[in-house]
Amino acid sequence: MTDTAILPQVERTSHTPINLQAKLALFSEHWSPKVIAEMNDYQFKLVKLQGDFLWHHHQHTDETFLVLEGHLRIDFRDGVVHLSPGEMYIVPKGVEHKPFAADEVHVLLIEPRGVVNTGTETTALTAPNDIWI
Ligand code: NI
Q1: Within a domain: residue 16?
Q2: Are 106 and 67 in contact (CB under 8 A)?
Protein backbone atom coordinates (compact mmCIF):
# COMPACT_ATOMS: atom_id res chain seq x y z
CA MET A 1 0.00 0.00 0.00
CA THR A 2 1.40 3.40 -0.88
CA ASP A 3 1.43 6.33 1.51
CA THR A 4 -1.11 8.12 -0.60
CA ALA A 5 -3.54 5.24 -0.34
CA ILE A 6 -3.80 5.50 3.44
CA LEU A 7 -4.24 9.26 3.58
CA PRO A 8 -7.72 10.73 3.51
CA GLN A 9 -8.01 11.99 -0.02
CA VAL A 10 -10.00 15.03 0.99
CA GLU A 11 -7.15 16.38 3.10
CA ARG A 12 -4.66 15.78 0.31
CA THR A 13 -6.60 17.66 -2.29
CA SER A 14 -8.51 20.39 -0.50
CA HIS A 15 -7.08 23.50 1.09
CA THR A 16 -8.80 22.80 4.35
CA PRO A 17 -7.12 23.33 7.71
CA ILE A 18 -7.04 20.43 10.12
CA ASN A 19 -9.15 21.54 13.06
CA LEU A 20 -8.00 19.91 16.28
CA GLN A 21 -11.25 20.49 18.17
CA ALA A 22 -13.31 19.05 15.32
CA LYS A 23 -11.05 16.01 15.21
CA LEU A 24 -11.26 15.56 19.00
CA ALA A 25 -15.05 15.50 18.75
CA LEU A 26 -14.85 12.38 16.56
CA PHE A 27 -13.79 9.94 19.28
CA SER A 28 -14.10 9.40 23.01
CA GLU A 29 -12.05 6.34 23.93
CA HIS A 30 -8.92 6.67 26.02
CA TRP A 31 -5.35 5.60 25.25
CA SER A 32 -6.07 5.07 21.55
CA PRO A 33 -4.14 7.57 19.38
CA LYS A 34 -5.72 8.78 16.13
CA VAL A 35 -3.60 10.05 13.25
CA ILE A 36 -4.67 13.45 11.93
CA ALA A 37 -1.69 14.33 9.73
CA GLU A 38 1.70 13.27 8.52
CA MET A 39 4.76 15.37 7.81
CA ASN A 40 7.45 13.38 6.04
CA ASP A 41 7.81 10.28 8.24
CA TYR A 42 6.27 11.91 11.30
CA GLN A 43 2.70 11.56 12.45
CA PHE A 44 0.53 13.95 14.43
CA LYS A 45 -1.81 11.94 16.63
CA LEU A 46 -4.61 13.08 18.91
CA VAL A 47 -5.23 11.03 22.01
CA LYS A 48 -7.47 11.31 25.05
CA LEU A 49 -5.94 10.02 28.26
CA GLN A 50 -7.48 9.30 31.62
CA GLY A 51 -6.14 7.26 34.51
CA ASP A 52 -2.90 5.37 34.73
CA PHE A 53 -0.86 4.02 31.82
CA LEU A 54 1.96 1.50 32.05
CA TRP A 55 5.70 1.95 32.32
CA HIS A 56 7.25 1.68 28.87
CA HIS A 57 9.93 3.10 26.62
CA HIS A 58 10.50 3.56 22.91
CA GLN A 59 13.72 1.98 21.72
CA HIS A 60 14.19 3.95 18.53
CA THR A 61 12.66 7.38 18.95
CA ASP A 62 11.88 10.36 21.15
CA GLU A 63 8.18 11.06 21.77
CA THR A 64 6.57 14.51 21.95
CA PHE A 65 3.55 15.24 24.16
CA LEU A 66 1.75 18.55 23.56
CA VAL A 67 -1.14 19.09 25.99
CA LEU A 68 -4.23 20.73 24.48
CA GLU A 69 -6.65 20.39 27.38
CA GLY A 70 -6.39 19.12 30.94
CA HIS A 71 -3.36 18.29 33.01
CA LEU A 72 -0.94 15.48 32.28
CA ARG A 73 1.65 14.02 34.61
CA ILE A 74 4.46 11.95 33.17
CA ASP A 75 6.38 9.86 35.69
CA PHE A 76 10.00 8.93 35.13
CA ARG A 77 12.16 6.61 37.19
CA ASP A 78 14.06 9.67 38.42
CA GLY A 79 11.41 12.39 38.45
CA VAL A 80 8.13 13.73 37.15
CA VAL A 81 6.90 16.40 34.75
CA HIS A 82 3.52 18.16 34.96
CA LEU A 83 2.06 19.55 31.74
CA SER A 84 -0.75 22.08 31.42
CA PRO A 85 -2.54 23.20 28.26
CA GLY A 86 -0.11 24.81 25.86
CA GLU A 87 2.88 22.98 27.31
CA MET A 88 4.89 20.25 25.64
CA TYR A 89 7.59 17.81 26.60
CA ILE A 90 9.83 15.51 24.62
CA VAL A 91 10.53 12.12 26.19
CA PRO A 92 13.97 11.00 25.01
CA LYS A 93 14.49 7.72 23.22
CA GLY A 94 14.93 4.80 25.58
CA VAL A 95 13.71 6.62 28.71
CA GLU A 96 11.06 4.81 30.72
CA HIS A 97 7.92 6.87 31.27
CA LYS A 98 4.37 6.47 32.55
CA PRO A 99 1.67 9.02 31.69
CA PHE A 100 -1.07 9.67 34.24
CA ALA A 101 -4.15 11.86 34.08
CA ALA A 102 -6.45 12.25 37.09
CA ASP A 103 -9.08 13.75 34.79
CA GLU A 104 -9.34 13.49 31.02
CA VAL A 105 -6.56 15.19 29.12
CA HIS A 106 -6.29 15.84 25.38
CA VAL A 107 -2.84 15.46 23.89
CA LEU A 108 -1.20 15.87 20.51
CA LEU A 109 1.54 13.29 20.05
CA ILE A 110 4.25 13.88 17.48
CA GLU A 111 6.41 10.91 16.60
CA PRO A 112 7.60 8.85 13.65
CA ARG A 113 5.15 6.62 11.83
CA GLY A 114 4.98 3.14 13.36
CA VAL A 115 5.59 3.97 17.03
CA VAL A 116 3.62 1.66 19.33
CA ASN A 117 1.95 3.46 22.23
CA THR A 118 3.10 0.90 24.78
CA GLY A 119 6.67 0.80 23.45
CA THR A 120 8.27 -2.62 23.83
CA GLU A 121 5.34 -3.91 25.92
CA THR A 122 2.26 -5.55 24.47
CA THR A 123 -0.80 -5.38 26.72
CA ALA A 124 -4.51 -4.68 26.57
CA LEU A 125 -3.52 -1.00 26.38
CA THR A 126 -1.55 -1.51 23.16
CA ALA A 127 -3.44 0.47 20.51
CA PRO A 128 -3.52 -0.21 16.77
CA ASN A 129 -1.45 2.13 14.63
CA ASP A 130 -2.45 4.25 11.64
CA ILE A 131 -6.05 4.84 12.65
CA TRP A 132 -6.86 8.01 10.73
CA ILE A 133 -9.69 10.35 11.61
NI1 NI B 1 5.48 6.50 25.28
Answers
A1: no
A2: yes
Whether 1 shows a pLDDT value over 80: the answer reads no
- Does this model's pTM top 0.90? My answer is no
Q: How far is the CA of 62 from the centre of ligand 1 (A)?
A: 9
Alpha carbons 109 and 23: distance in angstroms, whole number: 14
Task: Map residue 66 onto helix, strand or coil.
Answer: strand
In a domain, 7, yes or no: no
27: in domain: no
- Asked if the structure places residue 67 within a domain, the reply is yes
Number of structural domains the chain divides into:
1
Q: Is residue 124 very low, low, confident or very high in pLDDT (cuts 50, 70, 90)?
A: confident
Pairing relationship of beta strands 63-69 and 88-91 according to DSSP bridges: antiparallel
C-alpha to C-alpha distance for 100 and 9, rounded to whole angstroms: 35
For residue 93, report the distance from its CA to the centre of ligand 1, in Å: 9
